[in-house]
Amino acid sequence: MCGIIGYTGPLDSKNILLEGLSQLEYRGYDSAGIALCMENSQIRVIRHTGKVANLKEGCKDFAEKSHCGLGHTRWATHGGVTTENAHPHRAGRVVLVHNGIIENYHQLTTEYHLEDKLSSETDTEVAAWVLDSIYQGEPMEAIAKLVSKLKGSYSFCMMFEDHPGEIYAIRNVSPLVAAYTRSGSFLASDLTALIPYTRQYFVIPENHIVKLTSYQTQLFDLEKNEQQPEILEVNWNIESAMKNGFPHFMLKEIHEQPDALKNTILPRLVKGLPDFTDDQIPDHIFKDCSQIHIVACGTAMHAGMAARALIEPLLRIPVTVSIASEFRYEEPLVDNKTLVVIISQSGETIDTLAALRLAKQYGANTLSVVNVKGSTIARESDYVLYTHAGPEIAVASTKAYSVQLAALYMIGCRMAYVRECYSKEEATEFMKELLDAIPAMEAMLEKKEVVKDLVSHLIQKPDAFFIGRGLDYAFSLEGALKLKEISYIHAEAYAAGELKHGTIALITDQVPVIAIATQEKVFSKTISNIREVKARGAFVILLTKENAQVERGVSDIQINIPDINDRFTVFPIAVILQLIAYYASVGKNLDVDQPRNLAKSVTVE
């Protein structure tokens, strides 16, 4: 959630830190700061609330040279949005930045008698003062003692005034990556901050200390034994993390979906069949399981719900979708015959990671669908299926959702084939129809002006409702989430048949209802439900297929998608729902890419 950048080397650290924080703005934050180790070994700390632009303005007249420093963007957890609560935090000889939550900070405050020393409300400052209290001149020894006293999640990056030019870091759950280049040593919470300098990096393993100097980056375990990190390489370039002429990242990423699907599907298509050989995913995990449990949060969970609606009737085995934050506390029915599918764009979502670890304790086979190579969830899963969306900068997920769906659909097809629910011909036809969804998405991108016009009614209303049945209901959930998270319009999705069981009481004159009707077997039922809301004055936007027989007056606006197989309508429908949310946000003059209170990678519970 918060962003971290660190640098030590021959270049001007102030500029590197400020530009790195700009690259990390998309993660969500409310204040920013930098700490600079000066040539006289003193550390200067500069902090501001609001955007990184405010911090840059505050640093404009700062002319002193620095070649080592830390930067941070804070997403408030402990304490309000104030300069005092912003990072970095100074405590005696220590300056520290932190992502995560320290659960026992109250006990530590009492144990180390810190009440009179604290100038902020944060758990981070408590950790900094504890570190200063136990520091005896040897950083790694003090860091190891510090983390032995902590409960919670953290990525700590630290500088010590008596060790100028050095940066130390350690993490538990919250992600950190590091790299050494000819320009010096770098670390960050996200690859986007490193891409301008290097394509090679390593993920700092949990409970390991990394030491950065201007001439090397070293990794140690907690006993100070040096370790060799696994060097990874970024498979996208800096242009992928730029707007490239689009007014917002979200619109750019909506347009990138057809290519992202091709990149995810085509490398795994062998003789017309989905093939996971290169991913080292064996068929026996698909063949031997008696049930599937999909675990995810937010948009990824909605992808799982769409996959469940497809896979369960196809395989005729139970498929359960759980919200990751609830999974640990509901005593899930998971055993060694369960395939647990974990979905996370970042591969660092803390609730999802905790669910993965619990599933492994139950003895389940775990298969993760993630977008970030080397992420914690990817490394800890038994098997991993990487999606190839490239960097997704907008907080509201678009192309990550589409490629997650594509990956899950391919898993479903492979399972049907190896379990003999599909013949080779049926599996090949399935994949052909999945590929047909790509030009259908491209066709929907051509309708963005139509969508732009229709949102004029939406943005005048405080509420909106999405309705559908079966797969269409699963799509509706994601549409409602997109609308509320970036336009701040209260939006809810309902199974259309449930309207008469209470929800129809909320339908009043001109309230917007986005109705999705693409599933032939329930089409007439859905149309009847649409008539019910229309009879009560709703303003209906109908999303259906080109060949659908719809009488005049059923809707106020109708948008048609191409006539593709019902199972794959989620892909073009996703584009339309994303564009509706996007243009609603633009129409209200909101911050599309960085909606309030939200963060891209959720690494706190």
UniProtKB/TrEMBL annotation:
Domain SIS: 281-421, 454-595
NCBIfam families associated with the record: glmS (TIGR01135), PRK00331.1 (NF001484)
Biological process annotations from GO: fructose 6-phosphate metabolic process; protein N-linked glycosylation; UDP-N-acetylglucosamine metabolic process
Enzyme class: transferase
InterPro entries per record: GATase_2_dom, GFAT, GFAT_N, GlmS/AgaS_SIS, GlmS/FrlB_SIS, Ntn_hydrolases_N, SIS_dom, SIS_dom_sf
Pfam family, one: GATase_6
CC per GO annotation: cytosol
Gene3D superfamilies noted in UniProt: Glucose-6-phosphate isomerase like protein, domain 1, Glutamine Phosphoribosylpyrophosphate, subunit 1, domain 1
Catalytic function, reaction form: D-fructose 6-phosphate + L-glutamine = D-glucosamine 6-phosphate + L-glutamate
Residue stretches making up the Glutamine amidotransferase type-2 domain: 2-215
EC numbers, comma separated: 2.6.1.16
GO molecular function, one term: glutamine-fructose-6-phosphate transaminase (isomerizing) activity
Keywords, alphabetical: Aminotransferase, Cytoplasm, Glutamine amidotransferase, Repeat, Transferase
Protein name per Swiss-Prot or TrEMBL: Glutamine--fructose-6-phosphate aminotransferase [isomerizing]
Organism: Lacrimispora algidixylanolytica
